[in-house]
């Protein structure tokens, strides 16, 4: 009996001790959480604003004019008057075809013109002489009419001789092949001494570097989205589609040259699903070269009533992007609440805190939300207490 009572008493003691131990363990995290100091954070108030809308796309450069140089006349190529890669002016001599035959043709045409002039003078004198005799009825009407016809034929012959002379002079000019545009010379395709058979033979090419043409495509999906945004009033596009264009080079640096879109194709390329746009860029120092791959940044459009948040405030948890918003928990404490967001364009603009990189937020936050922009590294878990230091800052496009 005494042994059973002792065992029962020992069991009760052990059960009570274990219960107290487990209760203490379960209350430890709550005690630790309650004792945790709030994380110091900086915030900004989400407000509507008009934000710049920028598109960045791959693009290629080409000469504003790429001209094939051909001879309009035939003959032996006597000289090449340029160096390959040389910059030439418009009308500068490039090739010379044997000029002698064309000089002789000019002299022959000039002689024919002189003869036609003499024939006309003689015909005019004859008509004048017969006109007096006809008045005295000393010659027949037929003789007078024949003289008048001869004068008309002499006039026609003279006009034909003038045209022949102009043609001979033009051929002489064509024998001196000149640059049709200013630009940079390509390589020669025909050597000196070759017989040039006429326009069917390509002599060389000229590429006009200044200005230079920038070509790129916008996808059909992006265009449809922009049309929808314009229709619902959230986006305004540049007037007449004249986007301002800036160029980003392969090393990431920005070119100091810019221009405007001057052509937008209404057709969609079935192979790429894009429509082509073109801009003309001044290029006086030839820094930009045809065939170069660059990125073009299109600006001039405006997002209406948008939220713009510093880029550093937008985090990624592996399943999507989110921001921390200041909120109150059930106990009335100030905490950091995660808010999943949908981001739009990456916007670059300076603000009074020195920030340059911002995200445009399409959804996930509301007007007046207090978004945490600094101190996120101190937030160890969602719902952690926070202490706001500058809750009066606003997101601004100024």
Automatic annotation (TrEMBL):
Residues 305-376 form the Multidrug resistance protein MdtA-like C-terminal permuted SH3 domain. This is Efflux RND transporter periplasmic adaptor subunit. The lineage of its organism: Bacteria, Pseudomonadati, Pseudomonadota, Gammaproteobacteria, Alteromonadales. Belongs to the membrane fusion protein (MFP) (TC 8.A.1) family. It is found in: Cell inner membrane. Residues 211-298 form the Multidrug resistance protein MdtA-like beta-barrel domain. PANTHER family: ACRA/E-RELATED COMPONENT OF DRUG EFFLUX TRANSPORTER. It is a lipid-anchor. Transmembrane segments: none annotated. SUPFAM superfamilies: HlyD-like secretion proteins. Residues 1-22 form the signal peptide. Residues 106-133 form a coiled coil. Residues 66-197 form the Multidrug resistance protein MdtA-like barrel-sandwich hybrid domain. Keywords: Coiled coil, Signal. Residues 107-175 form the Multidrug resistance protein MdtA-like alpha-helical hairpin domain.
């Amino acid at each position: 009996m005494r042994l059973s009572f002792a065992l029962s008493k020992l069991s009760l003691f052990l059960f009570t001790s274990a219960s107290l131990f487990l209760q203490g363990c379960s209350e430890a995290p709550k005690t630790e959480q309650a004792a945790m100091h709030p994380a110091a954070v900086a915030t900004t108030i989400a407000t509507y604003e008009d934000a710049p809308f920028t598109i960045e796309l791959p693009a290629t450069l080409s000469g504003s004019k790429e001209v094939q140089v051909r001879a309009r006349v035939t003959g032996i190529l006597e000289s090449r008057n340029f160096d390959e890669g040389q910059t030439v002016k418009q009308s500068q001599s490039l090739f010379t075809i044997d000029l002698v035959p064309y000089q002789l043709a000019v002299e022959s045409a000039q002689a024919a013109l002189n003869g036609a002039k003499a024939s006309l003078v003689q015909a005019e004198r004859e008509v004048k002489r017969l006109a007096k005799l006809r008045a005295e009825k000393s010659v027949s009407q037929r003789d007078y009419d024949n003289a008048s016809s001869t004068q008309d034929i002499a006039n026609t012959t003279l006009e034909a001789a003038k045209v022949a002379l102009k043609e001979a002079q033009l051929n002489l000019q064509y024998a001196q092949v000149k640059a049709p545009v200013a630009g940079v010379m390509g390589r020669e395709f025909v050597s000196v001494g070759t017989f040039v058979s006429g326009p069917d033979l390509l002599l060389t090419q000229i590429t006009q570097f200044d200005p230079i043409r920038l070509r790129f495509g916008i996808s059909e999906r992006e265009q449809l989205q922009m049309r929808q945004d314009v229709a619902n009033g959230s986006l305004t596009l540049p007037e007449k589609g004249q986007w301002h264009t800036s160029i980003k080079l392969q090393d990431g640096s920005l070119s100091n040259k810019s221009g405007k879109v001057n052509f937008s194709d209404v057709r969609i390329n079935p192979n790429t699903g894009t429509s082509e746009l073109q801009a003309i860029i001044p290029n006086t120092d030839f820094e930009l070269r045809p065939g170069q791959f660059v990125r073009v940044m299109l600006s001039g459009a405006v997002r209406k009533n948008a939220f713009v948040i510093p880029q550093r405030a937008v985090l990624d948890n592996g399943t999507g992007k989110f921001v921390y918003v200041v909120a109150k928990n059930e106990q009335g404490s100030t905490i950091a609440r995660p808010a999943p967001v949908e981001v739009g364009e990456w916007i670059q603009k300076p603000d009074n805190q020195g920030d340059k990189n911002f995200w445009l937020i399409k959804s996930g936050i509301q007007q007046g939300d207090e978004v945490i922009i600094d101190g996120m590294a101190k937030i160890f878990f969602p719902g952690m207490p926070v202490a706001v230091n500058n809750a009066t800052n606003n997101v601004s496009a100024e």
